[in-house]
């Protein structure tokens, strides 16, 4: 017969109260049930835990040793349960988030900051890279989730990808660019200019290559390759290059005030922000909370 945690508590409470009656009241069971439980433990161990007195009980030497060890076991179990509750309620634990490509960090920064602010005991790690390098690490358990380009993440059958938001796409050039005087722009008019391409935006590069081929133009060979947006902006300001930009805001915010944004001319595939988790591993509480926080912040930013 196994001695479970419930019976350990029966012995410990009886020792604490030195009374079967009072211990039974504290445990919310009948006196006969408690007496039977203690007898079963003694029979299983082959030792006597209590000496029965006219008024109450007293632990034997073996009983005192057993109770000391039982208290440690019960304490460890309570600590384990408490730790699990802390983990589930984000009072402990770690969120390991991948972002692919690195330029997508600006779309998750508000959600990450909000989650960290509301859960100060939660550790947060954000790692950037390409979907090709991060997705295998998600399937192996190194990450809790990845935020990235939904279509690219969808290439991995072991990942469950949720579309979080649609991107708005434009080609950005400087104000006063030669294209600004053309009121009837064609794709080829834009694509013939030098291309500035963020090094981590593979989907856009592939799409631009297809549009160049469709228009009889040579494959794009980006003249400038940067990821830092301040440097991108400086180059666009000083050259005739164009660069694709994406935004969760259809108005593109202040970007439209500073640059000329060309929309609905270059036909690129739709872009979606995705949230990926492993299909074969249970989601961590931190990953679930991050997804909900991202939904809330993205909904606000698109309105």
Search tags:
303 residues, Arc Repressor Mutant, subunit A, D-Maltodextrin-Binding Protein, domain 2, 3 domains, five-stranded mixed beta sheet, three-stranded antiparallel beta sheet, 12 helices, 12 strands, HTH-type transcriptional regulator CynR, transcription, LysR_HTH_N
Would you mind describing this structure in some detail?
This is HTH-type transcriptional regulator CynR. One of its GO terms (cellular component) is cytosol. It comes from Oceanibacterium hippocampi. GO terms for molecular function: DNA binding; DNA-binding transcription factor activity. With 303 residues, the protein is α/β, with parallel strands linked by helices. The chain folds into three domains: 84 residues, Arc Repressor Mutant, subunit A (Orthogonal Bundle), CATH 1.10.10.10; 104 residues, D-Maltodextrin-Binding Protein, domain 2 (3-Layer(aba) Sandwich); 95 residues, D-Maltodextrin-Binding Protein, domain 2. 47% of the residues lie in helices and 19% in strands. The protein has twelve helices and twelve strands. The strands form four sheets. It has a five-stranded mixed sheet with strand order 4-3-5-12-6, sandwiched between helices. A three-stranded antiparallel sheet has the order 10-7-11. A two-stranded antiparallel ribbon has the order 1-2. Strand 1 and strand 2 form a beta hairpin. Helix 1 crosses helix 2 and helix 1 crosses helix 4. The longest helix is centred in the N-terminal third of the chain and has 28 residues. The protein is rod-shaped. It starts with a helix and ends with a helix. The mean pLDDT is 89.
């Amino acid at each position: 017969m196994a001695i479970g945690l419930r019976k350990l508590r029966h012995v410990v409470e009886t020792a604490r109260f030195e009374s079967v009656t009072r211990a039974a009241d504290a445990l919310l069971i009948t006196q006969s049930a408690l007496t039977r439980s203690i007898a079963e433990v003694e029979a299983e161990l082959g030792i006597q835990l209590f000496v029965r007195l006219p008024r109450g009980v007293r632990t034997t030497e073996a009983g005192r040793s057993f109770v000391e060890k039982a208290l440690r076991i019960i304490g460890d179990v309570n600590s384990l349960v408490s730790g699990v509750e802390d983990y589930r309620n984000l009072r402990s634990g770690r969120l390991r988030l991948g972002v692919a490509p690195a330029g997508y960090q600006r779309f998750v920064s508000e959600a990450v900051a909000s989650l960290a602010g509301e859960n100060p005991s939660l550790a947060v790690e954000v790692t950037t890279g390409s979907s090709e390098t991060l997705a295998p690490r998600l399937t192996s358990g190194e990450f809790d989730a990845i935020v990235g380009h939904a279509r690219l993440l969808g290439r991995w059958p072991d990942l469950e990808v949720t579309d979080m938001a649609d991107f708005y796409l434009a080609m950005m050039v400087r104000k006063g660019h030669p294209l600004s005087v053309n009121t009837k722009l064609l794709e080829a008019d834009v694509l013939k200019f030098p291309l500035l391409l963020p090094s981590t935006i593979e989907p856009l590069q592939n799409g631009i290559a297809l549009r160049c081929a469709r228009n009889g133009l040579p494959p794009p060979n980006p003249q400038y390759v940067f990821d830092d947006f301040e440097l991108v902006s400086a180059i666009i300001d000083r050259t005739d290059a164009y660069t694709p930009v994406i935004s969760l805001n259809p108005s593109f915010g202040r970007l439209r005030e500073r640059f000329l944004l060309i929309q609905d001319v270059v036909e690129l595939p739709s872009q979606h922000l995705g949230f990926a988790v492993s299909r074969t591993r249970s989601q961590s509480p931190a990953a679930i909370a991050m997804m909900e926080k991202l939904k809330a912040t993205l909904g606000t930013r698109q309105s």
